[in-house]
Structure formats: structure tokens, C-alpha cells
Amino acid sequence: xxxxxxxxxxxxxxxxxxxxxxxxxxxxxxxxxxxxxxxxxxxxxxxxxxxxxxxxxxxxxxxxxxxxxxxxxxxxxxxxxxxxxxxxxxxxxxxxx
Length: 97
Known about the structure:
The chain is an alpha+beta fold. The protein folds into 2 domains: 34 residues, no CATH class; 44 residues, no CATH class. The chain contains 5 helices and 3 strands. The protein has a 3-stranded mixed β-sheet. Helix 1 links the parallel strand 1 and strand 2. The longest helix is centred in the C-terminal third of the chain and has 16 residues. The N and C termini lie far apart (49 Å).
């Protein structure tokens, strides 16, 4: 038994007829022979997923794997700037390269 991690699914044949129909605000499982072949994500769902990953992983790893957009890079820069503004002398003394 294969797990389908989406509430909506479509087979590849139907997807080919009108792919843009399935770029919705939730993941869509794409099935081949009734097994998940992949998942289709809208831009907003993908961006939300990237935000969650960035919050729970090292930002360096996320950018290396997913190549964030210019807007996402700007947000990361703003966040890093906030961290640097809040750094204390003790934090800097503990820094080791």
C-alpha cells in the first residue's frame, strides 16, 4: 500500500489535459497506475513549505537545496540583520571560526 499525502489526487492522463487546473492552494498527488508518482504544488504552497523549512533548518542548507527567490533572500537578509543587531559582546566572544 502506498501513502498518498494529499487530499486531492489526479492521474497523469487527466493532468496532461489541463495542468494549470491543479495548481491550487493545497498539494495534489499525481498518480501513475494508482501509485503516487509525485506531488504538484502551487507557488504559494511551495513558498509556505520553504518558510517552514527555513524556520526548522539551517538557512544555508535550505538555500543550497532549493535556490530561494530574490524576495526570499531579502527576507533572510532582513532576519539576519535583526539577529546581528541583537548580538551581545558575550555572543561575539564565544564566536569561533
